[in-house]
Design a protein that fits this description.
By secondary structure, the chain is of the alpha+beta class. It has 2 domains: about 230 residues, P-loop containing nucleotide triphosphate hydrolases (Rossmann fold, 3-Layer(aba) Sandwich); about 110 residues, OB fold (Dihydrolipoamide Acetyltransferase, E2P). It is about 25% helix and about 35% strand. Strand 1 and strand 2 form a beta hairpin. Helix 2 crosses helix 3 and helix 2 runs parallel beside helix 4. Bound molecules: adenosine-5'-triphosphate. Adenosine-5'-triphosphate binds next to helix 1.
């Protein structure tokens, strides 16, 4: 039976500093839920409040119907995988994984059976007598995961578990973690500052900044429909183009320099806005076509796509990625018109706080 986690009005203070002030979060049963945000935004702090390593200065933390605020760490039934794995160097794989069971005074036969089963799940049963010094980074990560899961916790927490691995192994291990989490079906809260990793593993993501949740959604929702310019620029790349919104005969139009397009907005009030265009949401036209006037400064051919760096006539830097590798490249110095894919772009208010697009 998987559990849900409900956090209501959470407050965290360190001395006089308030790090988290009134945070709400609901994490669903069996969900792979990721806290994503820049360094120092409070991800680890929140995770440590859930497991009980940090005190809670306000609000309520619940696992299903049980309030856990005052439940001691060892009674919360939560497993955790740390960034540095925290594996005991003087114990074999089997002893490391069995450590939590031994503390719980589980009978030897049952202990052996549970260790063997979890080592098979994480696919290191052939290494059970090995010492940690003779394991690769990925194997150590599997030991840490097995050790957290063997106690059959209700919740699994992971704090940047892949950051000590090289790039290739990181991609391999994130797939392993996702698969095991899916097979075990355990409610999981995962912390990372790596947006690609978050998109790859998560059912849903909470994007955090300065202790405040900016948006909760599936990877696709967050990428396609960011709540504000922080999310739009933190997850992937977005060009933010200042523009003017007006309503003509009931249709909202947005004008960037001398380029006007019709876009469905949630407001009919005329005003300054920011059009948020991802590099793949532009179409490069010749100057005979429509679009924002810009000059190609440089380009990088990447095989399946070409990455262009341009400057508009108002001096703004723009990045464009085209997968149209059949056409000739636009050389540096070429003047072009950048049209936008109106069914894909987002529009924010001038402060970047609210997404105004209506779709
Ligand atoms: P990172 O990705 O770098 O680990 P994070 O998002 O996990 O960042 P936290 O470690 O949660 O960030 O830190 C959030 C804020 O709380 C930071 O400003 C940090 O300096 C502060 N902080 C964390 N732990 C303590 C502590 N024990 N005492 C005082 N301040 C702390």
């Amino acid at each position: 039976m998987s559990v849900e986690i409900n956090i209501t009005d959470a407050v965290k203070k360190f001395g006089n500093d308030t790090i988290i002030n009134g945070l709400d979060l609901n994490i669903r049963p069996s969900e792979f839920f990721t806290l994503l945000g820049p360094s120092g935004c409070g991800k680890t702090t929140l995770l440590r409040m859930i497991i009980g390593f940090n005190s809670i200065e306000g609000g309520e933390f619940k696992i299903d119907d049980q309030v856990i605020n005052n439940v001691p760490v060892n009674r919360r039934n939560i497993g955790m995988v740390f960034q540095n794995y925290a594996i005991f160097p003087n114990m074999s794989v089997k002893e490391n994984v069995g450590y939590g069971l031994k503390l719980r005074k589980i009978a030897k036969d049952e202990m052996d059976a549970r260790i063997n089963k979890i080592l098979e799940t994480v696919k290191i049963d052939h290494l059970k007598d090995r010492m940690p010094a003779k394991l690769s980074g990925g194997q150590q990560q599997r030991v840490a995961l097995a050790r957290a899961l063997v106690i059959e916790p209700a919740v699994l927490l992971m704090d940047e578990p892949l950051s000590n691995l090289d790039a290739k192994l990181r991609v391999e291990m994130r797939n392993v973690i996702k698969q095991i989490q899916h097979d075990v079906g355990i409610t999981t809260v995962y912390v990372t500052h790596d947006q690609e990793e978050a998109l790859a593993v998560s059912d849903r993501i909470a994007v955090m900044n300065h202790g405040v949740i900016q948006q909760v959604g599936t990877p696709r929702e967050i990428y396609r429909h960011p709540a504000n310019t922080f999310v739009a620029t933190f997850i992937g790349l977005s060009n933010l183009i200042p523009a003017r919104a007006t309503t003509v005969a009931g249709d909202t139009t947005v004008t960037m320099d001398d380029y006007t397009v019709q876009l469905p907005l949630r407001t009919t009030e005329p005003g300054d806005v920011l059009v948020s265009v991802r590099p793949e949401e532009f179409v490069i036209n010749s100057t005979d076509g429509t679009g924002l006037l810009a000059t190609v400064e440089s380009s990088v051919f990447l095989g399946t796509s070409t990455h262009y760096f341009l400057k508009t006539s108002t001096g703004q830097d723009i990045e464009v990625i085209t997968d149209d590798t059949d056409t000739d490249e636009f050389e540096a110095g070429t003047k072009v018109r950048l049209a936008i894919k109106t069914d894909r772009v987002n529009v924010f208010d001038a402060e970047g706080n609210t997404n105004l697009i209506a779709r």
